[in-house]
Structure formats: C-alpha cells, structure tokens
C-alpha cells in the first residue's frame, strides 16, 4: 500500500525489557510484515528499525512534525519520574523518557500503552519503586489505551492497532482503559482447568500426580480468578500456548500493580 494509505506509528521504548516487542513479532493474523507494509507505517521503533544514532533521531523528529495530529503513539515501558526522570535518558541528545513521551504525546492521534509497564508501571513500579516509575496515563493528561500484560499477546497489540486503522477511533474500554474485546472476561472463566476447580481437584505441589493430570493450579498460586485477559481463548505465539496450559498459574500480569498485589506468585 502507498504510504498515504498507511497510518504512521511511532513506538517508544522507555523503562522496559522489550518483551512486548517480542510478542508483537509473533503476530500471525495479520503477521508483522503485512501489518507494517500494508496497514501502518512504522516510523520509529528502536529494535525493528534499520536506522541508528543521529539518523534514528532524525526519523523520530521528522515523524513527529510531518505527521503531527495523525500518528499513532505506542509506548513500551514505564516512565521514570523521580529526579525529573533522569533515571532514563534516550538517544544522542540525552532526553529523558518523561520528556520524550510528553513530546510525542502532544501530536498523537491516539496513545497506546503496550504492556503493563507503560499501562500501570509494571515491575519498575514495584515497591519501593526507586525511580518513581509510572504508567503513561499518569504523566499525560488524556486517554491512554492500556494493553495490560507482561507481555500482552500479539493479538491484543495488533488487534488494537488494527481497530484504530480500520475504524479511526478507540475501541470500548474497561475501567482501567483496557479494550473490552480483549480484557472483558476473567481468565478463570475461560480456563480449560476450570472443571477441575469446580470439582475441587487441585494441584497441591508442582511435582505431584495432580499436576501431571492437569488439575487446577489455584492452590499453587494461580491468580486467574482475579485477572481479566483473553489468554485462555487466544493464547500466545499464534495459538500455541498460555501460562496455565504450560503448567504454571496465571500471575495476574495484566492487572495494575500485580507485582505487589499478586505476590507471592506460587501461593494462593
Ligand atoms: Fe517487558 Fe513486561 Fe514491561 Fe512488556 S510489560 S516491557 S514484557 S516487563
Ligand atoms: Fe482458575 Fe487458575 Fe484453576 Fe484455571 S488454573 S481454573 S484460572 S484457578
Ligand atoms: Fe498474564 Fe495471566 Fe495471561 S499471567 S499472560 S494474564 S494467564
């Protein structure tokens, strides 16, 4: 497709691990190639772009001015805010992540926080949060679509981008500004082990026979009853697997503050 037919996308990396970008690269419907050649124009993405150094920064500056008001902004990673954000500086000019995200948000048509770090602070914001890490919505005074998950599945990322590309507006959001189409149901309610939960059949420890038989993981810490996400139905890496199918309980990774609120991950 011509550039004019594609929606420009600027993707910033702040305090993060790049797991969300890893998830994005596993997309299959559409796959990443189709996404960036037919539907969006990926203007800036530190791990996927060919440019480096000054040229990369020029690409970013060019995109922010050329497509002002029209580009989608995706943010991966929390925003360190302590000491004016100096715990994260990016690029040759030494801008803080806080400065960068404010600058990029100013001309964005819509802002998507990809992953729990940029949505709610994530692991960086876990107590005692020495860098003052926050979600994007805490530093930007407008609606931010939060794609909770550490990482969110590629479906939740691509589906949200494609929703905007196709309809030109934001999808319906839940109380934490997560798209309802992806985060509208509890993990527990669609889990393939739910029958075992209802029958009172639990794994008591990871090495026991009940674990081998695929019993419910609630007693070894599964937080599926408190977590909203589509992992059991949509899975990850295409439709290959998800945490409970792989044998470990859900750790509540798409919920705000899960590092503090859901710990200990292996105890009920
Ligand atoms: Fe990494 Fe998780 Fe943060 Fe994504 S949400 S950048 S996977 S720590
Ligand atoms: Fe619920 Fe977790 Fe048990 Fe599945 S494994 S039924 S999500 S408690
Ligand atoms: Fe995260 Fe739980 Fe899904 S840990 S990946 S929300 S099953």
From TrEMBL:
Quaternary assembly: Heterodimer of a large and a small subunit.
Domain annotation Cytochrome-c3 hydrogenase C-terminal: ranges: 183-265
Key words, A-Z: 3Fe-4S, 4Fe-4S, Iron, Iron-sulfur, Membrane, Metal-binding, Oxidoreductase, Signal, Transmembrane, Transmembrane helix
Known catalytic reactions: H2 + A = AH2
Chief place of localization: other
Domain NADH:ubiquinone oxidoreductase-like 20kDa subunit intervals: 17-163
Interval of the full protein contained in this chain: 68 to 335 of 378
UniProt cofactor(s): [4Fe-4S] cluster; [3Fe-4S] cluster
Name used for this protein in its record: hydrogenase (acceptor)
Coiled-coil stretches: none
Record has Signal as a keyword: yes
Compartmental location: Cell envelope
Originating organism: Shewanella electrica
EC id: 1.12.99.6
Protein family per UniProt: Belongs to the [NiFe]/[NiFeSe] hydrogenase small subunit family.
């Amino acid at each position: 497709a011509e550039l004019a037919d594609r929606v420009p996308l600027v993707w910033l990396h702040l305090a993060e691990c790049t797991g969300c970008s890893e998830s994005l690269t596993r997309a299959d419907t559409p796959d990443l190639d189709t996404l960036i050649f037919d539907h969006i124009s990926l203007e800036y993405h530190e791990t996927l772009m060919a440019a480096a150094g000054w040229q990369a920064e020029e690409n970013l500056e060019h995109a922010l001015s050329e497509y002002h008001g029209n580009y989608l902004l995706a943010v991966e990673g929390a925003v360190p805010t302590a000491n004016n954000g100096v715990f994260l500086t990016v690029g040759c000019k030494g801008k803080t992540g806080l400065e960068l995200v404010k600058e990029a948000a100013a001309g964005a048509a819509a802002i998507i926080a990809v992953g729990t770090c940029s949505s709610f602070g994530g692991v960086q914001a876990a107590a005692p949060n020495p860098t003052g890490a926050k979600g994007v919505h805490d530093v930007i005074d407008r609606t931010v679509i939060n794609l909770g998950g550490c990482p969110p599945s590629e479906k939740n990322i691509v589906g949200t981008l494609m929703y905007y590309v196709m309809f030109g507006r934001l999808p319906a959001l839940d109380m934490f500004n997560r798209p309802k189409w992806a985060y509208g149901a509890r993990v527990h309610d669609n889990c393939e082990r739910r029958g075992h939960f209802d029958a009172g059949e639990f794994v008591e420890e990871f090495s026991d026979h009940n674990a081998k038989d695929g019993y419910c993981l609630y007693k070894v810490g599964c937080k599926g009853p408190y977590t909203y996400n589509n992992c059991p139905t949509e899975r990850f890496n295409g439709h290959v697997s998800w945490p409970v199918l792989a044998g470990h309980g859900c750790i509540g990774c798409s919920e705000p503050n899960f590092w503090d609120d859901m710990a200990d991950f292996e105890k009920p």
